[in-house]
Amino acid sequence: MAVYTKIENQDISHLFQNFGGIESMRGITEGVENTNYLIHTANKEKFIFTIFEKRTKSSDLPFFHKAMNEFNFDGINCPTPIFVNEKDIFYIKEKYCAIYSYVNGSQITSLNEQAIISLSTIVSKIHHIGIKSKLYRENDMLKPSWKYILDKFKDYEGKNKNELNHIANVINILEDKFPKNLRNALIHADLFKDNIFFIDNEVSGFIDFFFTCSDTIVYDLATLINAWFFKYSDFDEHHFQIFFNHYFDSISWTNKEKEYLNFYLKASSIRFFLTRMHDQYFNKEGEVKHKDPQEFFDILQFHEKNNLQDFF
Question: Which of 69, 83, 157, 193 has minimal Cβ neighbours within 10 Å of its Cβ?
Answer without folding.
Answer: 157
